[in-house]
C-alpha cells in the first residue's frame, strides 16, 4: 500500500470516528434537553395525554381530553373545590330561587388579556350554545333556562334566552321551572364565558390555536403543537392566582398507547400514567410502585329494547335474565379490569343523598341468584309470547375489551342456565352507537358518564322523553318521579324520588346494572393535590403542588391495600369514607 | 422523455381520481354514522350538524362538491377535530412522517445493501445463515412488536446508565428519531437484504465478473466496481414504493413513540369515520405514491443507461 493510500484510509477512519462522536454528542444533547417529570424549582409538572384535544371551543366541546384542558384554562360561574364541593368561580355570590338565579361576579375576574370577565360574556356564550346554527351537542344542558329549548328548536330568537346582564357584574337567569341542580350546571363547560369581541374577531378559527383563545382560568394555553404537545402556564390575570402553586403544566407526549405512558413514567419523564392495563399493572406491582385508583363516573349496564317488535319487551323474560346474571362474577372473574366495582343500581356510589352518600342511604336491591325462579319466569314469558322456544336474542356490543367480554359472558351464561340463544352483534364503536340509536338490538352493553353533579344526570336516562333512552322504555310512574326530581327543591323529596326510580328499574328489570368503571394509575409520590374526578375535567392540577426531593425513595414503600385483590379493594367503606372526595370517589388515596 | 413523463402524469391523474372515487364509495358504504356521539342529540341539532358538514345533500351531490373542492386543493374541515382544516392537518403532520420515513429509508437501504452484499460474499457460511435467519424474523414479526421492544430497550438502557441517553418517546430532536426510524425501516431493510443477496448472486456468476477475475482485477475492485454497482439496480426499483410505504405506514410506530405523524391521524380518521380527513389523507397518499413511482422510473433511466424509456422507439 502506498503512503498516500494509507493516509487516505487513516483519514477515512478518522472521519468515521468523528461522525460517530458527533452522533453521540447529538444524542446526549438531545437527551439533556428533555425535561423530567417534576421540577420543584420552576414548579413544572410534565404529563402525557391520550389524544390531541378535538375541540377547545367550550360552547361546542364534548370530549374528555378537551374537557381536561378546559378545566385548567377556563372557569365558570361556579367551580369544584379540592373536596369536590361547588364553590365560587367567576361568581362571588349567588342566589338560587324557584324562578331563577342571580350571580354577582368578582370585579377582579379577568381574561388572559387583562380585560374584565363581565356578565355579558356569559350571556353571549349561553346564547351561542342554544343557537341552532352553532349546533352545540350540549345545548340541552341549558334547557332549564327560559326559552332555551324553543330557541334550539328554531322557534325563537337567541336574544330571547332567559339570561340578562343587569350590569357588568350581575347576571340574572330566568328558569322555566325550579331547577335544584342548576348551580352544578354553571360549572359545566358549555356554560363557560366567552368574550364576544374576541370570538367574532377570530371567526371560524376561534380555539383552533393557542393564540385564538382567551382564557379566564388558573392557567392559559401558551403552546399547542397539534398532535405533539401542549403547554399551560399560570394565568397572571387569574383572580385566585395566589392559590395556584404550579407555574407550568407541560404535555410533550400525546399517544393513546397505555404502555408508552407507563414506559415514560418509568423513565421519569411524566409524573403520572393513567389507564393501566393488566400487563402494566403487573409490572408496576412488581416494581413496587404505589398504585392508585378512582372512579371516572361511567356506569355500565345492559339495556333492553322495550319496543313492541322485540321479545325483550316481555317483563318476565327480562326478569329471568336478571335472576341469573352475576355481576360480581363478571367484574371480578371475567373482566378482571382493575379498579372497577360491580353495581346493582343506576346511581354511582360517589353522589350525595340527603346527608350521606345516596347508595348508603338507599341501598339498591340485589337480585338473588336463583335458576329455578329464573326458569319459572322464562316459562311465563314463553306463555305470554305464545312461543315454545324464545327466538334468538341479539346482543349488541362494541369491540372494546369490556364490551367483548361482557357479551361472551352473557352468551355463555344465558345459554347454559336458561337455554337462550344469544347472537352477539359485535360492532365498531361508531356503528354500535348508530345501531343503538336506531333501536336495532334486543340487548345492548351501554355506558353512561355524568354531565353534572346530581343523580338526575343518570336518573332521567329512562324517562320516556329522553332521547338517550335507547330502548324506548315507557313508564308513567317513572316519568312522574323524574319530574319530581327535576323540579323539587326539597332534598328529602328528591332523594325519595330517586329511590323510587331505582326500585322501578329493578322491579321492571329495565336494565341490568354491571359496573362502575375504575381507572388505575401510578403517580409520582412527590406530586400532591392532583384531582381525579368524574366531573370538571380529569385529571386536574389546579390545586397541585410538588414536594421538594427527599432522600427516601417513596416509591419503594408499598401500600398493602393497593395489592390487587378485589376482595380487599371492596372492603366495606373503602370507597365510602366520609372524607373521600365527593366528585372523585378516590378509593386508594393514601400517601405512604 | 417529455412525452413519457406527460403520459405518466396523465395516467397518474386518472389513478388519483380512481383512488378518490373508490375511497368515497367505500367510505359511504361502511356502516356507521360519522356524527354519532355517546349522547343523543335532538333532531334539530342533528340537522344543523348535517348542514354544517354538507351531509344533508344527496350523496352524488356530495361527491361533486368533494371533487370540485379537491381540484381547488381544499379538503374541508375535519369532523372530529373541529376548527381544523384537513389541509392544515396534512401540512403539519406529513413533514414529521416524511422526516422519520427518510431516515428509516436511509437506514433500510444502507443496511439492506450491506447485509445483502455480506450474505452473498459469505454464501452458505455462518454470516449468511445468521443474517438470513434475522431477516426471516424481521420480515415475519409485525412492527408493533419491534416498536414495543425498541421502547423497552431504550428504557432498560436508560435505567442501566442511570440517565436518559435516548428519549423513550416524544418528538423534537435527532435522539427522538433514532429508534423509531430503525423500527420503521426494519421490514424494508430485511426485504432489501434478500433482494440484494439474490441480485448479488446472480451478478457473481455473470460473464463480465469472470472476465474481470481472469484479467487479474483485485477482488475488492471487482466487488465495488462491478458486482455491487450492477446488483444494486433492482434495489433502486423498489425504493419508490418503499418510500411511500415507509412514510405512510408508520401508524404503530407513531403511536408507541408518541410521534405526531400523519399516519396516526389517518388511522384514527378511519376508526372515527372522519369523512373529510379520510378523503384528504387518502388522496394525498395516493398522489404521493404515484409521484414517487414516477420519480423512480425517471431516475432509473439515469442510473441504467440501457433503460432510456424515451428512446425505445428509435
UniProtKB/TrEMBL annotation, chain A:
GO terms for cellular component: ATP-binding cassette (ABC) transporter complex; outer membrane-bounded periplasmic space. Residues 1-35 form the signal peptide. One of its GO terms (molecular function) is peptide transmembrane transporter activity. It comes from the Bacteria. The keyword Cell cycle does not apply. The keyword Transport applies. InterPro entries: Peptide/Ni-bd, SBP_5, SBP_5_dom. Keywords: Signal, Transport. One of its GO terms (biological process) is peptide transport. SUPFAM superfamilies: Periplasmic binding protein-like II. Pfam families: SBP_bac_5. Residues 86-465 form the Solute-binding protein family domain. It is found in: Cell envelope. Residues 556-592 are annotated as: Disordered. Belongs to the bacterial solute-binding protein 5 family. PANTHER family: PERIPLASMIC BINDING COMPONENT OF ABC TRANSPORTER (PTHR30290), PERIPLASMIC OLIGOPEPTIDE-BINDING PROTEIN-RELATED (PTHR30290:SF10). This is Peptide ABC transporter substrate-binding protein. It comes from Pseudomaricurvus hydrocarbonicus. The lineage of its organism: Bacteria, Pseudomonadati, Pseudomonadota, Gammaproteobacteria, Cellvibrionales.
Amino acid at each position: 500500500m502506498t503512503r498516500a493510500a494509507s493516509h487516505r484510509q487513516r483519514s477515512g477512519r478518522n472521519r468515521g470516528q468523528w461522525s460517530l462522536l458527533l452522533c453521540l454528542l447529538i444524542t446526549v444533547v438531545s437527551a439533556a434537553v428533555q425535561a423530567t417529570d417534576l421540577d420543584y424549582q420552576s414548579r413544572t409538572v410534565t404529563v402525557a395525554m391520550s389524544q390531541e384535544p378535538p375541540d377547545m371551543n367550550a360552547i361546542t366541546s364534548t370530549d374528555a381530553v378537551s374537557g381536561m384542558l378546559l378545566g385548567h384554562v377556563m372557569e365558570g360561574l361556579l367551580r369544584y373545590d379540592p373536596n369536590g364541593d361547588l364553590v365560587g368561580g367567576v361568581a362571588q355570590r349567588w342566589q338560587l330561587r324557584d324562578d331563577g338565579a342571580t350571580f354577582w361576579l368578582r370585579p377582579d375576574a379577568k381574561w388572559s388579556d387583562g380585560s374584565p370577565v363581565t356578565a355579558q360574556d356569559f350571556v353571549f356564550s349561553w346564547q351561542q350554545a342554544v343557537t341552532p346554527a352553532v349546533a352545540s351537542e350540549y345545548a340541552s344542558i341549558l334547557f332549564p333556562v327560559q326559552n332555551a329549548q324553543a330557541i334550539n328548536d328554531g322557534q325563537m330568537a337567541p336574544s330571547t334566552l332567559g339570561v340578562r346582564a343587569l350590569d357588568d357584574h350581575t347576571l340574572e337567569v330566568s328558569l322555566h321551572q325550579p331547577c335544584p341542580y342548576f348551580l352544578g350546571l354553571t360549572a359545566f363547560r358549555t356554560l363557560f364565558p366567552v368574550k364576544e369581541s374576541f370570538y367574532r374577531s377570530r371567526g371560524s378559527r376561534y380555539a383552533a390555536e393557542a393564540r385564538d383563545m382567551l382564557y379566564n382560568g388558573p392557567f392559559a394555553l401558551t403552546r399547542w403543537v397539534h398532535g405533539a404537545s401542549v403547554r399551560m402556564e399560570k394565568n397572571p390575570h387569574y383572580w385566585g392566582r395566589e392559590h395556584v402553586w404550579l407555574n407550568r403544566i407541560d404535555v410533550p407526549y400525546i399517544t393513546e398507547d397505555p404502555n408508552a405512558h407507563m414506559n415514560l413514567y418509568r423513565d421519569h419523564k411524566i409524573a403520572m400514567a393513567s389507564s393501566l392495563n393488566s400487563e402494566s399493572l403487573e409490572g408496576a406491582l412488581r416494581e413496587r410502585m404505589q398504585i392508585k385508583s378512582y372512579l371516572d363516573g361511567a356506569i355500565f349496564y345492559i339495556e333492553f329494547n322495550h319496543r313492541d317488535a322485540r321479545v325483550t319487551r316481555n317483563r318476565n323474560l327480562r326478569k329471568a335474565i336478571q335472576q341469573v346474571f352475576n355481576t360480581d362474577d363478571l367484574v371480578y372473574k371475567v373482566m378482571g379490569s382493575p379498579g372497577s366495582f360491580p353495581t346493582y343500581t343506576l346511581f354511582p356510589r360517589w353522589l350525595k343523598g340527603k346527608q350521606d352518600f345516596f347508595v348508603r342511604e338507599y341501598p339498591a336491591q340485589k337480585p338473588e341468584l336463583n335458576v329455578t325462579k329464573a326458569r319459572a319466569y322464562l316459562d311465563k314469558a314463553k306463555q305470554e309470547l305464545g312461543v315454545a322456544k324464545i327466538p334468538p336474542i341479539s346482543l349488541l356490543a362494541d369491540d372494546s375489551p369490556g364490551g367483548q367480554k361482557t357479551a361472551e359472558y352473557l352468551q355463555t351464561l344465558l345459554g347454559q342456565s336458561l337455554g337462550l340463544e344469544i347472537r352477539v352483534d359485535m360492532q365498531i364503536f361508531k356503528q354500535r352507537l348508530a345501531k343503538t340509536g336506531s333501536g336495532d338490538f334486543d340487548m345492548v352493553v351501554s355506558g353512561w358518564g355524568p354531565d353534572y353533579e346530581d343523580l338526575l344526570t343518570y336518573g332521567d336516562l329512562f324517562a320516556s322523553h329522553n332521547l338517550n333512552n335507547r330502548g324506548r322504555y315507557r313508564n308513567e310512574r317513572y316519568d312522574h318521579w323524574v319530574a319530581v326530581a327535576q323540579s323539587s327543591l326539597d332534598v328529602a323529596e328528591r332523594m325519595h324520588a330517586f329511590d323510587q326510580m331505582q326500585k322501578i328499574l329493578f322491579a321492571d328489570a329495565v336494565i341490568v346494572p354491571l359496573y362502575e368503571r375504575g381507572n388505575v394509575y401510578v403517580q409520582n409520590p412527590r406530586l400532591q393535590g392532583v384531582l381525579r374526578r368524574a366531573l370538571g375535567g380529569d385529571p386536574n392540577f389546579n390545586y397541585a403542588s410538588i414536594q421538594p426531593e427527599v432522600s427516601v425513595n417513596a416509591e419503594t414503600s408499598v401500600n398493602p391495600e393497593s395489592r390487587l385483590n378485589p376482595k380487599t379493594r371492596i372492603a366495606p367503606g373503602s370507597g365510602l369514607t366520609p372524607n373521600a372526595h365527593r366528585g372523585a370517589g378516590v378509593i386508594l388515596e393514601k400517601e405512604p | 422523455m417529455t412525452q413519457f413523463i406527460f403520459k405518466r402524469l396523465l395516467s397518474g391523474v386518472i389513478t388519483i381520481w380512481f383512488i378518490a372515487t373508490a375511497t368515497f364509495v367505500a367510505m359511504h358504504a361502511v356502516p356507521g354514522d360519522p356524527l354519532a356521539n355517546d349522547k343523543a342529540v335532538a333532531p334539530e341539532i342533528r340537522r344543523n350538524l348535517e348542514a354544517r358538514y354538507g351531509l344533508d345533500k344527496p350523496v352524488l351531490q356530495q361527491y361533486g362538491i368533494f371533487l370540485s373542492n379537491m381540484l381547488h386543493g381544499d379538503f374541508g374541515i375535519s369532523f372530529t377535530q373541529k376548527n381544523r382544516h384537513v389541509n392544515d392537518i396534512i401540512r403539519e403532520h406529513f413533514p414529521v412522517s416524511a422526516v422519520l420515513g427518510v431516515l428509516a429509508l436511509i437506514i433500510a437501504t444502507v443496511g439492506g445493501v450491506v447485509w445483502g452484499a455480506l450474505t452473498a460474499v459469505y454464501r452458505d457460511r455462518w454470516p449468511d445463515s445468521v443474517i438470513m435467519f434475522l431477516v426471516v424474523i424481521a420480515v415475519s414479526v409485525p412492527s408493533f412488536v419491534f416498536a414495543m421492544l425498541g421502547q423497552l430497550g431504550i428504557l432498560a438502557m436508560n435505567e442501566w446508565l442511570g440517565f436518559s441517553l435516548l428519549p423513550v418517546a416524544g418528538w423534537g430532536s435527532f435522539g427522538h428519531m433514532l429508534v423509531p426510524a430503525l423500527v420503521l425501516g426494519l421490514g424494508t431493510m430485511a426485504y432489501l437484504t434478500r433482494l440484494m443477496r439474490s441480485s448479488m448472486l446472480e451478478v457473481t456468476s455473470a460473464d463480465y465478473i469472470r472476465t474481470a477475475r481472469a484479467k487479474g482485477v483485485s477482488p475488492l475492485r471487482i466487488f465495488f466496481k462491478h458486482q455491487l454497482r450492477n446488483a444494486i439496480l433492482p434495489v433502486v426499483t423498489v425504493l419508490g414504493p418503499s418510500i411511500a410505504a415507509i412514510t405512510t405506514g408508520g401508524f404503530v410506530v407513531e403511536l408507541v413513540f408518541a410521534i405526531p405523524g400523519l399516519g396516526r391521524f389517518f388511522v384514527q380518521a378511519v376508526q372515527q369515520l372522519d369523512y373529510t380527513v379520510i378523503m384528504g389523507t387518502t388522496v394525498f397518499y395516493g398522489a404521493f405514491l404515484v409521484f414517487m413511482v414516477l420519480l423512480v422510473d425517471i431516475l432509473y433511466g439515469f442510473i441504467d443507461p440501457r433503460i432510456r424509456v424515451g428512446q425505445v422507439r428509435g
